[in-house]
Structures are given as structure tokens and as C-alpha cells.
Amino acid sequence: MAEPFRVAVVGAGPAGLAAAVHAADGGLPVVLIDAGARPGGQYWRHPDPALGADERAGHHDWRTFAALRGALQAYVDGGRIRYLARAQVALLDPGPPFLLHLTPATGDAPPVPDVVAATDLILCPGGYDRQLPVPGWDLPGVMAAGGVQALLKGARTRPGNRAVIAGTGPFLLPVAAAFAAAGGKVAAVCEANSPLQWARQAHRAVQAPAKGREALGYIVALARHKIPYHPRTVVTRVLGDSEVRGAVLAKADAAGRALPGTSREVAADLVAFGWGFTPSLELPLAVGAQTRLDVDGSLVAIVDDQQRTGTARVRVAGEATGVGGAALALAEGELAARSLVAEVTGEPLRARGLHRRIGRLRSFAHAMQAAHPIPSGWTHWLTDDTLVCRCEEVPIAVVRNAVENLGAADPRTVRSLTRVGMGWCQGRICASPCARLAADLTGAALTADALEAISRRTFAAPLELSRVARLDAPIAPGEIP
Amino acid sequence: MSTVTVTFAGRTLHARDGQSVAAVLMAAGVRSWRTTRRGQQPRGLFCGIGACFDCLLTIDGRPAQRACLVPVRDGMILGENGDG
Predict the structure, then answer these.
(1) Which positions of chain B have pLDDT values less than 70?
(2) In CATH, which superfamily holds the domain spanning A382-453?
(3) Residues A177-215 pLDDT 10s
(4) A17 with A6: CB under 8 angstroms?
(5) I need a labelling partner for A346 at 20 to 30 A (CA). Which of A54, A73, A183, B25 fits?
(6) What domain range includes position B24?
(7) CA-wise closest residue to A146 among A467, A347, A429
(8) In order along chain A (481 residues), what is the average pLDDT of each group of 10 residues?
């Protein structure tokens, strides 16, 4: 076996980019693996140069990204970072050395090495929109809020003319602003919670003034485009037969239950939902990282003050340690790399400023999460035929039956009995609502153990059978790295 | 910016080089390109970033590709994926 890389960084979003560049700054040979065609992750998603669009349009802190991208390119040219784009880690063997079994992210992507080996891991897998089932959410024209943003930022394509944007959290605002700036009409932004809760947390927002300025910018954009913003409002049903034609909006009580007599229909050809974010935990779980529930109820990896998990030689940074946004991810990625460099070189880690920044941003993130919870009464808008699992098309009635009549007391048993979470997405979309549902129906609290049991995935990406057949193939000398 | 031409279910669609396949379809007003295997329900783009696998379709004869992740190329043949 050829010499393993000193460190494999997985993910080239804010955390992964910072980790890769700072590890290389410290002299470590790095392999950076990312599913995207270009670095930046979801936050700095930008168009293919072929599109000829201004790549900076609609972005915050682009200068930070440009600097990191420039540093990455220099290290790639100099041979210190090997950057594998459009590659996904499908399987991760425990280490050290850790073996990362790779697959091209799509069928048309160029070949990638079958395996790379690394002594250390810095996992920065990011996350995606958290979803809650609602009647009609499987209709074409219903999208994740982040998916709308991705199309606007990455392809300069507007996926509809008239949008309802609903769920909870500050992310609904930039999506609405971007959709309007692209010439679309935003019929309504529905925030399930009350912005007053935000104000109660304002003392923490003051600690992150850049965030306050950003929020103010969105509020101005909402006003300029005359976008109706409805607090304490939920979408209780998406309307349409073969595609979206509208949504039913209702005022909600503090628990998110629709108030009688407040329902109204709004015409739309796009309904975008976002209920905060779900971190991708497949890879941390694959190497035995310990988990906890964050303030927002997400399953996240437990890390110490150097981003180390309980598993030796595995660090995690970014959303997977708790959803907190790009600035926090950048700081954590830098800390992870610098702590590793200190360990390898024996130099002391000087990171007091970094620790302070992380503490401040984490506190802000927790305040945001506390102000935008998933409403406890969200199941009230479900009807018997509402799908919980979109892939396997499992309706809520089947899940209820499994819990109430078949004795399923935890989400894993629900999965075994109903096939929830066993389809193409492997529960990425439905694991969180399914776990909440099982907890609701049994009267138990949502636990990290319950979520973890349905968040483990043998394969972190689907593999073609020909690739599966090579998983056990002997690795030729010199083939890796 | 240059334009490219692709074929979807027998239709010719014009696209901008640099778009994803999903973006090309959505821009052409195609909202769904797959039917589910149980309920025969139409599906198209949902998460938009490669997590949900709802947007699968056959691209140049290769089945089950995520339309949201594949960049469009001139002459691509896009087909509906009946086996989702």
C-alpha cells in the first residue's frame, strides 16, 4: 500500500475548505474529497463558468471564499492538496489508516480512485433542508427551500413564477429575496414561529453583528419586493392534481396547530419548505463518532474543544457538529486543521481567538434554533394518506398502525415494519419526521439513540453493482493514494 | 454563454451550457419526469442538492441519474425513468 495521506478532508464547503487550506498551511499532505463540481458547498454554490454569469451575485462574504479558493488552487498546483471533485465517499472503513471508498458523484463524472487512505479524518459533510410531511408535499412543484436557492445560485434558473415559501427559520428570507430578485412573485412567506421570539434572543444576536446586518438586508429586500411575510402561519395542505396549483395557509397557535376559521387558499406554482437543516451524519456515524441532540432536535456529532470526536484521529467540523451557518463552519474547519497540525508538529495550539469566535457563533446559532423550533403540533395538519416516506410511499396511517397496533415503540422498528426510510434516499428526508412521529405517538421524548438508529447507512452513496464487486478487490501497490 | 440542445422524451429542448439537467427541465416548464413505482405518481425536483433522489432519470442510456447534479451537455438524451 502506498503512503496514506496525512489527512482526508471530506466536503469542500466552508468548513472543509478552511480545514484543507489550514492543514496544508501547516505542511500536511491533504486529500480533499467533495461531491460538488466546484468548491464552496451549498453556501457558496456558484454557476459553472460556462454559464457566463457573475459568480458573486447573491453571495455574502464572497471575498473569504475567493481567498480560500485561491489558496486551494495554489496548494493543488503545488501538489500539497489532492482535490477530488465530483467524488463521493460511499463507504468508510475504520482506521487509522482510514480507507475511503469513493464513487463518482454521478454517472457522467470522470473516474475517481476507488480508494484513498488517510491517517486522520476531518469530516465536513454539511447538511440539507429539514422537512416535515404535509398533505400534497409529494406533488411536483414542491421543493426544499435550499433546492430553490441552489437552482437560483447555481444555475440562474427560477423553478416557478409564483411561490409560497414556508416552514421556519431565518433561511426562508434569503430564499424569498433571491426568488423575487430573479423576477418571481413571492405570494407569501409563512413563518410558523413568531418573530417576537427572535427579539427575545436579541441580546445574543448583538454578539454576531454581521448576522444582524444580513437579516436587515433581507427585511429591506422583502419590503422592496412587497413580499407578504406571515408570522405564526403554516401551510396545512399543498393543492394540485399532477402538479402544484396552490397552498392552504392558516394562522397557527403557539404549537403550530391551525386556528379554526383562518384557512385560505393562495395560488402558486411553487411551494418551498424549509424547517431548518439536517446535518449529514453518515460518515461520522460510520467511524463511531458519539452523537447528541442539538437544541433544534437534530442529531449531531459530539466534538471537544479541538473538534475531536471520541473516535481517535477523527475530527468533525461544520453543520455536522450542530447547525450554525457558514461563519461558524469556517471557524470550526480552521480549528480542526490547526489542532491536527499542532498535534503532528508538537507545536502548541494557539487558538484563543478562534475559540472565542466559535463560542459566540455557537451561542447565536442556539438562540436561532430556540427561536425557530419545529412546532410540537405539526402532526395536526397530516391526513391519513399523507406520505411520511416519499421514496417508499408510506402514508401516515401505516406508520400510526405500526405504532398503535403492531407495538413499534421506536423509529427503527417502525422502519422494519413499514419500509419508511428504506428507499432511494435511505431516510435522509423522512428519518427526522419519522422519529418525531414515533416519539409523539408513543408519548416518549425524541432521543439521540432513536435518531441514530435510523441515521446509520451502510453506504453513504449509492454504488453501481460493478463498483460493489470491487470493494474487496486487492489494492495494487502504488494505487493509493 | 452558449446554448445547447437536448432531447427529453422525444422533445427538443434548448438549454444554456452550464445548467444542470434539472434546471434545463424546470426552465422548459417540465415539472415531473418520473412516476413512482407503487402509486404511479409524478415526481420531479425536490431537494435540489442530491440528497433525496426524487429527480432520477435516464441520461444517455444510463438509468437512475440525479438530474440536479448532472451538468447538461449538447446532444444529451434525457428519458423518463419508469422504475422509480
Answers:
(1) 1, 80-84
(2) BFD-like [2Fe-2S]-binding domain (1.10.10.1100)
(3) 999 999 999 999 999 999 765 555 555 555 666 777 787
(4) no
(5) A73
(6) 3-79
(7) A429
(8) 85 98 98 97 95 90 97 98 98 95 95 96 98 98 98 95 97 96 97 74 61 81 93 98 97 96 98 97 97 97 98 98 97 98 97 97 94 94 97 97 94 95 95 92 92 91 88 59 42
B23 within domain boundaries: yes
pLDDT for A214 equals: 80
Total tally of structural domains belonging to chain B = 1
Q: Which amino acid is at A219?
A: I
- CB-nearest partner of B46 from A142, A154, A242: A142
Which of A50, A106, A244 is opposite residue B17, by nearest beta carbon?
A: A50
Q: By CA distance, what is B40's nearest residue in A?
A: A393
Using DSSP's 3-state secondary structure scheme, residue A48 falls into coil
Per-window interface: B 8-27 vs A, CB < 8 A: 16-20, 22-23, 26-27
Q: Do domains A131-275 and A382-453 have the same CATH topology?
A: no
Q: Name the residue facing A140 among B17, B44, B68 (closest C-beta).
A: B44
Question: Taking CA A104 as the corner, what is the angle to CA A20 and CA A119, rounded to the nearest 5 degrees?
Answer: 40
8 Å CB contact of B22 and A105: no
CATH assignment, A131-275: 3.50.50.60
Q: Domain spanning A5-128+278-350 has what CATH number?
A: 3.50.50.60
A85-122 burial string, b = 16+ CB within 10 Å, else e?
bbbbbbbbeebebbbbbbbbbbbbbeebbbbbbbbbbb
d(CA A371, CA A169): 8
Q: How far is A206 from chain B (nearest CA, A)?
A: 32
**CB-based contact A119:B18 (threshold 8 Å):** no
pTM assigned to the model: 0.96
Q: What is the identity of the amino acid at A106?
A: T
Nearest CA in chain B to A138: B43
